[in-house]
Each structure stands twice: as structure tokens, then as C-alpha cells.
């Protein structure tokens, strides 16, 4: 299947788009150009080059060797920060999905929207409520609001604990 290269300016994402009839069953690749095509490659090239330069001047106690050690250290730390940012993005997205999941479960169980109550709940409370079984979700939500329970208190009250083994 031939994909059509497209660029979405509203979110600055590049993706491969397919006509609806030819949608592939696997996920389409999504790239954030500044991250995938500029920052990571530049940091990787800088880290590798500065390591190579430092190795060539190491052993000398010169200003040049200290400069390349500093550049190497900054490049490696910068590359590490970029890698950790990917994990941060994944956790942020997962928190949003968990919030949507709890909203949906609450609506299915009570017939009422959770949105009016969300202003009274902290994100950590909502994340803890995801572990509650269907029979206790609504009551535990009300108790969390009424008694201002912490996430640990919510988890301690759960009788039918639904484990989440898919956390990033």
C-alpha cells in the first residue's frame, strides 16, 4: 500500500496517511519533527563527536581536553534528558487515557457524567479510582470527594482491586 506523506500544521506532526479503503491494520507512524528529526539526531551526533574528540585529547591536562570533557558531559546529559522526555510524554498520555477510562466506567455504571465531580477530585485520586471494581467505583468516588481521601486511602478502601499491569 502506498502511503501519502502528509503534514498537519495544527499539531506539527508528520504521519503517513492512507485512503480510508486502504487503512492498514497496524498503527501509523507519527513523528514530532523537532524531536525526531532535529533534537535527537543533533544531540546524538554532538555526543558521539564530543566523546571521540575527548578520547583523542584525554590524558592531557590542557584547556582543550577540559573543554571537550565539558561538551561531552553536556551532550550526554542532554541526550539523556531527551530520552527521559519520551517517558514523560508517555506517562502524561497514559494519565489522560486513565481519566477517560474512569469517566466512561462511571457513566456506564451510574448513567451520570463524572465531569461535574472531576473539579473536586485531584488527578491522583482519579488514577487511584481506576483500581476499583465496578461495584464500588461510584461509592468510592463519592467518598473520595466527601472525605477528601488521598490516593493511598482510596486504594486501601478498595475491596475488588483491579490491577493495572500495562502501566508504562
TrEMBL record:
InterPro entries: DUF6526. Keywords: Membrane, Transmembrane, Transmembrane helix. The chain crosses the membrane at residues 36-55, 67-85. This is Uncharacterized protein. The lineage of its organism: Bacteria, Pseudomonadati, Bacteroidota, Cytophagia, Cytophagales.
Amino acid at each position: 500500500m502506498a502511503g501519502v506523506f502528509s503534514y498537519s500544521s495544527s499539531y506539527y506532526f508528520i504521519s503517513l496517511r492512507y485512503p480510508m479503503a486502504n487503512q492498514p491494520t497496524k498503527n501509523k507512524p507519527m513523528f514530532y519533527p523537532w524531536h525526531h528529526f532535529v533534537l535527537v539526531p543533533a544531540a546524538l551526533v554532538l555526543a558521539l563527536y564530543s566523546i571521540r574528540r575527548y578520547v583523542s585529547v584525554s590524558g592531557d591536562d590542557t584547556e582543550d581536553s577540559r573543554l571537550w570533557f565539558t561538551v561531552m558531559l553536556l551532550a550526554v546529559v542532554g541526550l539523556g534528558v531527551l530520552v527521559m522526555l519520551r517517558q514523560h510524554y508517555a506517562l502524561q498520555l497514559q494519565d489522560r487515557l486513565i481519566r477517560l477510562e474512569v469517566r466512561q466506567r462511571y457513566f456506564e455504571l451510574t448513567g451520570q457524567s463524572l465531569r461535574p465531580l472531576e473539579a473536586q477530585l485531584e488527578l491522583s485520586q482519579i488514577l487511584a479510582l481506576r483500581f476499583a471494581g465496578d461495584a464500588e467505583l461510584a461509592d468510592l468516588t463519592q467518598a473520595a470527594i466527601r472525605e477528601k481521601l488521598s490516593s493511598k486511602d482510596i486504594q486501601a478502601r478498595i475491596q475488588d482491586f483491579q490491577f493495572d499491569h500495562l502501566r508504562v
